[in-house]
């Protein structure tokens, strides 16, 4: 059943709160406060036991105790406020707290310190730290969750099926691992989104594409010098997207890294693809982008057409595949590496000026037809 904590009720727990069925602790009237410096556990019942404020003014949580779901799960349904200094952990890396509907607002200094935390629905607001031994799992299915918080991830942030939204000024500072464990996406559908990656973004499950997809929002901003490692399938960005000065990214041992899809990708001076294989499938490259000696940019368009209006400084390999890759509207390629036509595809100019400065090699290694560099290009 339901045990209600209402109208200013407070529980200061330095012992054990034990859910021995799938019952709930609910807030249906006024405020409720739970200060946990002990243990909240669930020892019976395979369902969810909720700290449920969906009918009241909301829970306020504080303390640095343990939440231990030994069976089933323990969840919070907001609105919920987590005070400065709040932290919680699981036991031996086990299942801890689940976040459900409503807005979960974390004060600066709030930390998930150890264990597995399941972000199923609702909104994360404020500022939340994921410590090195903690895992935040976003498993949405059809439902969609939203991050408007600053999420400082030093542990693991797993993105599962469905859409996890980074919206309305949401920021992820990743010094740990962001792991796509299905073909799910991290999307921006409202306002701005920032992803600062100094750790690793990887895809370990799913043969399709996991997108950092801003096609419905104001756009992603990327910074940092971390790794993007598509161990299976691919990881892509669908713009609009801005890449800040000093942005660089690499693959692992020359493997598949980042794909560029629809929209405009604007690179600030100093942006670099430093190692690995980068797949330019669609959209527009703008600004200035460096392809380092150990990196390969692959333009494989098929029927679709991609466009380069950027200054592309290629010291590595730029592979031009099927279809048309456009160098338009003042676009410049400074090639000191290799431009390799790997089919009978073309490098075309259809709008404005185009410049190709070649101090390296332009070669054709596949295809028995003609690969053209056409229409108004200055060499």
Summarize the structure in words.
This protein is mainly β and 379 residues long. The protein contains no helices and 43 strands. The strands form 2 sheets. A 13-stranded parallel β-barrel has the order 15-16-19-22-25-28-31-32-29-26-23-20-17. Strands 3-6-9 form a 3-stranded parallel beta sheet, with no helix packed on it. The radius of gyration is 25 Å and the shape is elongated. It starts with a strand and ends with a strand. The model has no long low-confidence stretch (mean pLDDT 93).
Keywords for this entry:
three-stranded parallel β-sheet, mainly beta, 61% strand, 13-stranded parallel beta barrel, elongated, 379 residues
Quick one: how many beta strands?
Answer: 43
Rg over CA atoms: 25 Å
Q: How many DSSP helices?
A: 0
Strand content: over 45%
Mean of the pLDDT scores? 93
Uncertain spans: none
Terminus-to-terminus distance: 77 Å
Which overall shape is indicated by the principal axes computed on the Cα atoms? elongated
Main sheet specs: 13 strands, parallel, barrel
Which structural class do the helices and strands define? Answer: mainly beta
Helix content: under 10%
């Amino acid at each position: 059943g339901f045990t209600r904590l209402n109208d200013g009720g407070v529980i200061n727990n330095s012992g054990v709160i034990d859910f021995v069925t799938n019952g709930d602790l609910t807030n249906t009237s006024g405020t409720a406060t739970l200060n946990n410096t002990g243990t909240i556990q669930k020892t019976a019942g395979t369902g969810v036991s909720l700290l449920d404020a969906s009918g009241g003014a909301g829970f306020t949580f504080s303390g640095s105790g343990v939440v231990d779901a030994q069976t089933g799960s323990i969840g919070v349904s907001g609105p919920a406020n987590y005070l400065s200094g709040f932290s919680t952990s699981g036991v031996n890396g086990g299942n801890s707290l689940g976040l459900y509907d409503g807005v979960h607002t974390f004060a600066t200094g709030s930390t998930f310190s150890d264990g597995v935390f399941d972000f199923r629905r609702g909104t994360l607001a404020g500022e939340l730290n994921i410590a090195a031994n903690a895992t935040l799992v976003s498993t949405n299915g059809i439902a969609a969750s939203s991050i408007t918080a600053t999420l400082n991830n030093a542990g693991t942030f797993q993105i599962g099926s469905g859409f996890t939204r980074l919206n309305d000024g949401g920021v992820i500072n990743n010094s740990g691992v962001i792991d796509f464990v299905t073909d799910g996406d991290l999307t921006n559908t409202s306002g701005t989104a920032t992803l600062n990656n100094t750790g690793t973004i990887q895809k370990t499950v799913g043969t399709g594409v996991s997108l950092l997809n801003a096609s419905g929002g104001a756009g992603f901003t990327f910074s940092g010098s971390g790794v993007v490692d598509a161990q299976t399938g691919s990881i892509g960005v669908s713009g609009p997207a801005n890449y800040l000065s000093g942005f660089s990214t690499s693959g692992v041992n020359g493997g598949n890294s980042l794909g560029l899809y629809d929209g405009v990708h604007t690179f600030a001076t100093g942006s670099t693809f430093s190692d690995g294989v980068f797949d330019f499938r669609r959209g527009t490259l703008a600004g200035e982008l460096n392809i380092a000696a150990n990196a390969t940019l692959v333009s494989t368009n098929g029927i679709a057409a991609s466009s380069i209006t950027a200054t592309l400084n290629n010291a590595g390999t730029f592979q031009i595949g099927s279809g048309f890759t456009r160098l338009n509207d003042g676009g410049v390629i400074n090639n000191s590496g290799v431009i390799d036509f790997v089919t009978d595809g073309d490098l075309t100019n259809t709008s404005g000026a185009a410049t190709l400065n070649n101090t390296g090699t332009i070669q054709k290694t596949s295809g028995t037809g003609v690969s053209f560099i056409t229409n108004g290009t200055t060499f």
